[in-house]
Write a structure and sequence with these properties.
Layout (H helix, E strand, L loop, with lengths): L2 E5 L2 E4 L2 E10 L2 E7 L12 E4 L4 E4 L1 E6 L4 E2 L2 E2 L4 H10 L2 E11 L4 H12 L6 E9 L3 H14 L3 E5 L10 H14 L2 E5 L3 H13 L7 H4 L3 H18 L3 E3 L5 H12 L4 E5 L1 H5 L2 H5 L22 H11 L4 E2 L32 H10 L5 H15 L17 E11 L18 E11 L2 E5 L2 E2 L19
Parallel strand pairs: 1-5, 2-6, 7-10, 10-11, 11-12, 12-13, 13-14, 14-15, 15-16
Antiparallel strand pairs: 1-3, 2-3, 3-4, 6-17, 8-9, 17-18, 18-19, 19-20
Helix pairs in contact: 3-4, 4-7, 7-8, 8-11
The protein binds N-(aminocarbonyl)-beta-alanine and zinc ion (ZN) (2 copies).
The site of one zinc ion has 3 residues, from loops.
Length: 470
């Protein structure tokens, strides 16, 4: 069994930082010791990595990605191979992607299709949530099977996208009741889709076709209303609820108020809602704004959403930062919406940049170092049944480790990223900090800015239930 010793670094966890050395044996962490504790066995190790001046932290856990997702007449441009290599470059060593079932389809076939896409093609470990796009008796039965036998313990429903993934309130209630019985988590895309469709048709009829109308036809009220409705339905069903990609401060308030009343309601946001905005990005001249079309949409900075999201990350009103990585190229993909914003495939790719972008919140004083680890590594693992295998550096945990150089810098650009995209939503952004070395289950997969892992190294993660529930 290969032994690797990480010396000299500052070990980070969700509860703080300490000077410690870390011993890895095979695929797991063998022990953590005070500085120098392992000196007498260093010569017996296969490798000693000097992390002096750097952070040694758990590998990132991104619980919201869409590799190869069919959407809007095309499919997300990252395969499991390209997407997980990019994830590794960015210090993310586990992803949880979304298998898809639509109306009339068999849920188990949907899951099998996602296994077929990912199996043998991943550079880091991966699990699945299941999208239930057609709630019926068979789908509800399949939820039980997936949760009990397949390690798929979370199910995404959509209040948006009528005719594609949409569920009505009765369907949502039934799925929530089923989840409640299983202890499984319902993940909700909370936007009022039928109302949005009316606003979209009216905007197009007025000749409003530019990308910025994507946001203007998805007003905050329709995110707020859907978030509140989802919370009420979950209350009736007594089901745990996790609101995905929260972008509006009004939706944050709905989540916060449910949590204040003791409900099992959780929320995530994503880097795009912290850094990008309607005015500065989506409303760019011409068709450039198409790069920033995602749902929920980018919000106006002057309305205070960005500040409210950072605050909610500090106060734990929001629990996780994931990416909702759903990349589309401009050419041939986003271009499908030239002259009609409603045909632009929804999604932004950033699986490679989540750890760096969130670290900027540490640099600018928005969050602490410990909270960075908690939001990006530990809580995602606990929320989705991967802890303590993932999300923490502790004896027995998988040896998924990031050595992060706080004195390094990263310039984000399409010229240097590894995602299969012909543009970057963060082009030209200069980031303080740099992913130095990444290990996945004891294997060095990134060093010297080079991928040293192998496709197929990533294994499927059968997940347990959320560890935030009684
Ligand atoms: O714009 C987005 N978010 N695309 C991916 C699908 C989803 O709703 O998460
Ligand atoms: Zn969604
Ligand atoms: Zn998504």
């Amino acid at each position: 069994m290969a032994k690797i010793l990480l010396t000299g670094g500052t070990v980070l966890s969700s509860s703080g930082a300490s000077s410690a050395d870390v011993l890895l044996e095979g695929e797991t962490i063998a022990a953590l010791g005070e500085r120098g504790y392992f000196a007498s066995i260093a010569s017996t190790c296969d490798r000693v990595i000097d992390a002096t001046g750097k952070y040694v932290m758990p590998g990132g856990v991104d619980v919201h990605t869409h590799m190869e997702l069919p959407f809007g007449g095309t499919a997300a441009s990252d395969t499991f191979e390209t997407g997980t290599i990019a994830a590794a470059f960015g210090g993310t060593t586990s992803i949880v992607d979304f298998a898809v079932q639509r109306t009339g389809e068999d849920v188990r076939d949907g899951l099998a299709a996602w296994h077929a896409k990912a199996d043998g093609n991943c550079a880091v470990d991966y699990g699945f949530h299941q999208i239930i796009g057609g709630v019926d008796d068979a789908a509800l039965e399949a939820m039980a099977y997936l949760s009990e036998h397949e390690g798929v313990t979370s199910f995404k429903l959509f209040m948006a996208y009528p005719g594609v993934f949409y569920s009505d309130d009765g369907q949502i209630l039934r799925a929530m009741q089923t989840a409640s019985g299983l202890g499984a988590t319902i993940m909700m895309h909370a936007e009022n889709g039928p109302a949005i469709d009316v606003l979209v048709a009216q905007a197009l009829a007025r000749g409003e076709t530019d990308p910025k109308y994507h946001s203007l036809t998805r007003p905050v009220e329709l995110e707020e209303e859907a978030t509140h409705r989802a919370i009420m339905l979950a209350k009736v069903a007594k089901a745990p609820l996790y609101i995905v990609h929260v972008s509006a401060k009004e939706a944050v308030a709905a989540v916060a108020s449910a949590r204040d009343m003791g409900a099992n309601v959780f929320g995530e946001t994503c880097p795009q809602y912290l850094y990008l905005s309607l005015e500065e990005h989506l409303a760019k001249a011409g068709f450039e704004g198409a790069a920033y079309v995602c749902s929920t949409p980018l919000r106006s900075r002057k309305e205070g959403h960005h500040d409210a999201l950072w605050q909610a990350l500090r106060t734990n009103d929001l629990s996780i930062v994931s990416t909702d990585h759903c990349p589309f190229c401009m050419k041939d993909q986003k271009e499908l919406g030239l002259g009609n914003f409603s045909k632009i495939p929804n999604g932004i790719g950033s699986v490679e940049h989540r750890m760096d972008l969130l670290y900027q919140g540490v640099v600018t004083g928005e969050i602490s170092l410990a909270r960075w680890v908690e939001l990006a590594c530990t809580t995602p693992a606990r929320m989705f049944g991967l802890y303590p295998r993932k999300g923490v550096l502790a004896p027995g945990s998988d040896a998924d480790v990031v050595i992060y150089d706080p004195k390094g810098t990263t310039d984000i650009s399409v010229k240097t990223h590894h995602m299969n995209m012909d543009h970057s939503a963060y082009e030209g952004i200069h980031v303080d900090g740099r992913v130095d070395t990444v290990l996945s289950r004891g294997r060095v997969v990134i060093e010297n800015n080079t991928f040293t892992g192998s496709v197929g190294h990533g294994t499927y993660l059968k997940r347990g239930l959320s560890q935030y529930l009684l």
